[in-house]
Specification:
The structure is a single chain. The chain is α+β, with helices and mostly antiparallel strands. It folds into 2 domains: 2-88, Alpha-Beta Plaits, CATH 3.30.70; 91-283, Alpha-lytic protease prodomain-like (Up-down Bundle). It is 67% helix and 7% strand. The protein has 10 helices and 4 strands; from the N terminus they run H-E-H-E-E-H-E-H-H-H-H-H-H-H. The chain has helices at 2-6, 26-38, 64-71, 84-88, 96-123, 126-147, 153-183, 190-208, 221-248, 252-283; strands spanning 15-21, 46-48, 54-58, 77-81. Helix 8 (190-208) runs antiparallel to helix 9 (221-248) and helix 9 (221-248) runs antiparallel to helix 10 (252-283). The longest helix has 32 residues, at 252-283. The protein is elongated and about 65 Å long. It starts with a helix and ends with a helix. The relative contact order is 0.15.
Length: 284
Amino acid sequence: MANAARAGSAADVPSFRYRVSGMDCANDAAQIERAAQSAGVAPDAVKVSAATHIMTLKAPEEHLPEIVKAVETTGYGFDRIESDDDLQQGAAHQDPAYRRALWIVVILNVGYGVIEMVGGFIAESQAVKADALDFIGDGAITFLGLLAIGWSLVWRARSALVQGIFLGLLGLGVLGTTIVRVFEQTTPDAGLMGLLGMVALVVNVISVLPLLRFRKGDANMRAVWLFSRNDAIGNAAVVIAAGLVAWLGSAWPDLIVAFGIAGLFLHSSWSIIRDARSDLKAAA
């Protein structure tokens, strides 16, 4: 099987597409590609886009069940795309309740992001400001994804390109302002930092609850859950930084967390832009 599958890079081997449920970043895409390669697929015969969540696979059709079994060990879901109409949208996207749930996520993220940003200025915490931008950015990206429901693959890739550029600008903004604060250090209000971080954790949980009912049927549910999980890690980092600021009486824990959040923005931006451009090139 391995030799036949590795011939998947040849021009005479058919190409198949799968919609991937649950991935949310380039690391997830790379994990899926490695799983496919472990089943004998050549590296140039499998491509997973972090922008559009589509896996393109070149392999003999008789070997597809074995390859799909290998990639399913990653824990993500794979639905074969039989036609261009099937590529446009998933069934759950047509559920009005799903759209309402996404609107709740948008409102909670953007709303608390604004509140946290104000709190960050009051507390003079760079980490809290960065976390606030993370909330606002997630809300804006979810809103863009909400608008893109039912769009063609090309337009979803364009939407992802906008998302990547937006995240990159946020990352550069956080990085620049944090560098300035390194030379103008002010010890933030640790108590307010910790309070805002704890409230952020609660908001993350509340924002994902409306989507729990779509956990089995919607391709984007796990992705939203993973975004919330990553946000929760950032919130926990803010809380820990607040404790260290209170203990050490130094602004460095706050600045280090802000640099970390900026790095996450820039890494995600690079991954999304790269995959979106690849998808646009393939579509052209």
